[in-house]
């Protein structure tokens, strides 16, 4: 008998934990692709960076894989089907890696962080800066799939240009309902969606006038909390019971070019965090015009 005569469950463990010869992996891959995988592997951490990924198992083992993009996609696809991951980091994302991003919505994981790549700048205080890229493939359907499988999500440098204010409202409602796995998400959106969401969800109108950002609302009961920071132009939070909704605008320096980042984040918080943030931040009362200078 050969190794291929072993039960499927044992072959699956061999594939997950051993660095096998390429020829045998091809034979095993063909067989595993035809299986309905009935057991879940548990992995501590998976790091994906450009043309390689590093997998750390719960047994303390660390294995590094370096493959071309098609082979990496195949491996990630199989891992997504049968692996529970505590933490996943995907870095150096570019337009070439959309298929890798697609796989991320399939993983069962506690924490997922996706980021683009860094470039040098001309500023001594910030020698490198993350590059902004449009990510039109991240829509509400993608976020809905993520919400079923991932507890905490953070996206850096990826502008979700397909998301509308209505999509953001639905995502917020999904997390608030506590009927999905997701408890927090932080992402970048387009400026129009950012402003429209504030208006649609909270009735807040934003206008830019001569280095003044003006926020106004007719809702006197609305409570937003502002945080002053030299890194942010605009940082507001709303606490609806234990759900925090955050709006942040920052400047992104990429070489000599300056771009504005529009971040929206939703997160379920405990009472201690909510009370601490309310004390730390400045309460904005509406029914009149609030002005933020930048």
TrEMBL record:
Amino-acid biosynthesis listed as a keyword: no
PROSITE patterns from the UniProt entry: FBOX
Pfam families: F-box-like
Keyword Coiled coil: yes
Keyword field: Coiled coil
InterPro entries noted in UniProt: F-box-like_dom_sf, F-box_dom
Coiled coil stretches, renumbered: 55-82
Annotated CDD domains: F-box_SF
Signal peptide from the UniProt entry: none
Stretches assigned to the F-box domain: 1-31
The protein, known as: F-box domain-containing protein
Organism: Pristionchus fissidentatus
Lineage: Eukaryota, Metazoa, Ecdysozoa, Nematoda, Chromadorea
């Amino acid at each position: 008998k050969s190794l291929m005569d072993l039960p499927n469950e044992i072959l699956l463990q061999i594939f997950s934990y051993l660095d096998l010869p390429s020829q045998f992996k091809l034979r095993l891959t063909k067989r595993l692709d035809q299986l309905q995988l009935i057991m879940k592997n548990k992995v501590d951490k998976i790091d994906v960076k450009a043309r390689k990924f590093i997998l750390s198992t719960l047994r303390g083992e660390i294995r590094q894989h370096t493959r071309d993009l098609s082979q990496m996609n195949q491996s990630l696809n199989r891992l997504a089907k049968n692996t529970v991951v505590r933490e996943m980091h995907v870095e150096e994302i570019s337009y070439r890696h959309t298929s890798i991003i697609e796989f991320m919505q399939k993983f069962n994981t506690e924490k997922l962080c996706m980021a683009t790549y860094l470039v040098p700048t001309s500023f001594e205080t910030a020698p490198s800066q993350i590059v902004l890229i449009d990510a039109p493939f991240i829509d509400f359907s993608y976020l809905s799939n993520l919400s079923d499988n991932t507890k905490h999500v953070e996206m850096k440098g990826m502008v979700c240009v397909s998301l509308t204010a209505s999509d953001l409202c639905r995502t917020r409602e999904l997390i608030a309902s506590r009927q999905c796995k997701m408890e927090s998400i932080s992402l970048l959106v387009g400026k129009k969606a950012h402003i429209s969401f504030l208006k649609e969800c909270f009735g807040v109108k934003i206008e830019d006038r001569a280095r003044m950002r003006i926020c106004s609302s007719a809702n006197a009961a609305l409570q937003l909390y502002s945080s002053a920071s030299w890194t942010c132009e605009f940082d507001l939070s709303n606490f609806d019971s234990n759900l925090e909704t955050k709006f942040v605008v920052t400047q992104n320096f990429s070489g000599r070019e300056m771009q504005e980042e529009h971040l929206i984040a939703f997160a379920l918080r405990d009472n201690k965090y909510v009370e601490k943030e309310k004390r730390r931040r400045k309460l904005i009362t509406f029914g009149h015009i609030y002005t933020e200078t930048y």
